[in-house]
Amino acid sequence: MTKIINIKDVKLNDYILFQEHNHIVHDDQLDCSNLYGKVIEIKTLDIIEGKTSISIKVQLDSMKYKEILEEYDNCLYFNFPHDEDHYDDTEVVIIKSYKILRTETVTDYQIVKASSEDEAYDNLKDDKWEGYEVQSSDTDIEEQNKPQLKTFITHVPVHGSMRVSVEASSEKEALELIKDGKYTDNDDSFSLQDCETTPEDLTEKDIEELC
Questions:
Q1: Cβ atoms within 10 Å, residue 37
Q2: 71: which residues sit within 8 A by CB, 6+ positions away?
Q3: SS3 102
Q4: Considering the entire predicted model, what is its pTM?
């Protein structure tokens, strides 16, 4: 479900979609309805008439008003409480980036910006997507910015045996020589593939991060 919030409730770096909104710049009234933008600055200023003065700066994606907003770096400014008469009811939707798995391959994702998964799929159908990336996954749709994966290493215990021989005068002497490594490997068919790995014997103490 799409959540609509007031412009005064946005946070720094939020990516937003304006609902019905007209913005006044000099003597021009700009229709910014359904335009996307990013909140690039929020400043808390002085207290005016008992209210904290807040300045919100939103940089538009669209270059629709490039000439008019050229001196403002294509940004809209909201200054409260000074602008309450004009923009107090300005509503926006927080937009996220979604990766949608393409049907033709399990490793190809298209990047779509939307306020919900349903809207992301609708935008994809309308060719409103921004690019794609290759990443293998079994998930049909997921938000970006997953935790960064790290590489960990360990040694998995292996249980097995190989035939060796040693010359000794008794079993006791033979055992001591073998424990000292003084034996001859005479099993040419020995292979680690014939051994049994036992990862269930590992604990977290056996795992270390690869730097």
A1: 23
A2: none
A3: coil
A4: 0.50
- The CB-based long-range contact list for 52-56 (8 Å cut-off, 24+ gap) reads 53/79, 53/80, 53/81, 53/82, 54/8, 54/79, 54/80, 55/79, 56/7, 56/8, 56/10, 56/80
Q: How far apart are CA 27 and CA 43, in angstroms?
A: 25
What's the topology of domain 4-94? SH3 type barrels. (2.30.30)
Which whole number is the average pLDDT over 193-197? 71
Q: How would residue 91 be classed by pLDDT, with cut points 50, 70 and 90?
A: very high
- Side chain identity at 35, as an amino acid letter? L
* Domain ranges within the chain, ordered by starting residue: 4-94, 96-143, 153-205
Structure tokens at 30: 């700009």
- Kindly report, residue by residue over 163-193, the tens digit of the pLDDT: 778 888 888 888 887 788 787 876 666 666 6
CB atoms within 10 A of CB 178: 14
